[in-house]
Amino acid sequence: MADEPLTSSPSAPEAPRRDDPAEHLAKRVEELPSADAATVLGELQSDQAAEVAEALDPQTAADILAEMDATLAASVITDMQPPEAATVLQYMDPDDRVDILEHVAPDLHDRLVGELKPADAADVHQLEQYPPDTAGGRMTTQVTALYEHITVDNAITTLRQLSKELEQMFYVYVINRHRELVGVLSMRDLILADPQTHLSRIMIRSVRSVPASMDQETVAQLMRKYGYLAMPVVDHNNRLLGLITLDDVIEVLEEETTEDVQKLFGAGAEERLNSPWHFSFRSRVWWLVINLATAFLAGAVVGIFEGTIQTLAVLAVYMPIVAGMGGNASAQAMAVAVRGLAVGAVDKKLMRRVLIRESIVGLLTGIVIALITAAVVLLWQGNPMLGVVVGLALVINHTLACSTGAGIPFIMKRLGFDPAQSATIFATTVTDVGGFFAFLGLATLFRSWLMQ
């Protein structure tokens, strides 16, 4: 079936409607690509989606649920009859199956696993022993591996048989009698080799692998760096456990990006649009409390110059401008720094260069903004000295904002904190405190000129 949306074709089926009976909706859904069908089911109530899934053939239902968010798919599985749910899970790839079972209630989880075939249940237990954000938690156990002692002729026969069972075959790995990863095969070498040659004679011995305990984001960075379609996962004894594929990497990068963006603004990494209110509350409130404490710190700085503000009330007009522009400059620098940390493109030498560059950028952008603001102040207030004070404060705060906006994420990373979640609060504090102190301090210093 073509990947184009079916609605673009004159003969495309009518779009499914939520009020269709389950059997009718199932017939319409099964004509759609799995990704589009997953969107349709995701918009239904979980009990209605469960009825549709039960009306589909198990393979189609498995393909559709595998395309859904794991939490939504788990809610659909939960509302299905356990025998039907277990049958659908049976048709899924091992990694997709475990991702969904992770979000199912423990009692139902055990019942569903108990109804799987012994080999599939063993796969579930094997994958569940690894944290979900590691290579072991992401891998699939469906990996093509041949023993090094078999001949080329036997290998080709085996691969022909495996091609009927496996959905896709990225690489063919070679293992020894202890299932230790010892090489990878080139299909060209395999086809051209003498049929009676052992695989150990033609395999490529320098094969890159990742340990099951490696963080998923690190795995994604390695695969992107070397351009692999898949990477084998091994245990501490170099025994082949499974495979991480390109689609897993895309999911990891999407999840990590989503988490970084949400944490950058103080939301929980796991929070979604359909998360319960109490989960969202717990995820956000503590960072808001910390932010409140830092806001009082900025307020305390303003309180130091209370006398100056009472004498020159016009300063209150420009305080949010100085602090706000610093916050914006800091956010720009921080976005670049957090992205560099996310993709692993950071070392000490580069960090020094970044800090120097950001200081220069902050100084130059501060000068530009200062000149524009000073001109506005002069036209608006008719006070050139006030324009000078506001402009100098903007230059100081922009320089401080860009250097700290780039530096704080590195410091947080070095201290073991997540820079995406913690850097924003502290960078905002620096720009608020620094901006208010620079502006009000300069205003106090030049108060006699400002009052003329």
Report on the structure:
The protein is mainly alpha-helical and 452 residues long. It has 3 domains: 6-129, MgtE N-terminal fold (Alpha Horseshoe), CATH 1.25.60; 145-254, CBS-domain; 277-450, Orthogonal Bundle (Tetracycline Repressor, domain 2), CATH 1.10.357. It has 22 helices and 6 strands. It has helices at 22-29, 34-42, 46-55, 58-67, 70-79, 82-90, 94-101, 106-114, 118-128, 135-138, 152-165, 187-192, 199-202, 216-226, 246-264, 277-304, 306-311, 315-342, 348-381, 384-414, 419-445, 447-450, and strands spanning 145-147, 173-175, 181-184, 210-211, 230-234, 240-245. The strands form 2 sheets. A 3-stranded mixed beta sheet has the order 1-2-3, with no helix packed on it. The radius of gyration is 30 Å and the shape is elongated.
Quick summary of this structure?
The chain is mostly helical and 452 residues long.
Give the overall shape, derived from the CA principal axes.
elongated
When the domains are counted, the total is 3
* Proportion of strand residues: 5-15%
- What is the typical, i.e. mean, pLDDT? 83
One letter per element, helices H and strands E, the order comes to HHHHHHHHHHEHEEHHEHEEHHHHHHHH
**Largest sheet, strands/sense/barrel:** 3 strands, mixed
Q: How widely separated are the two ends?
A: 79 Å
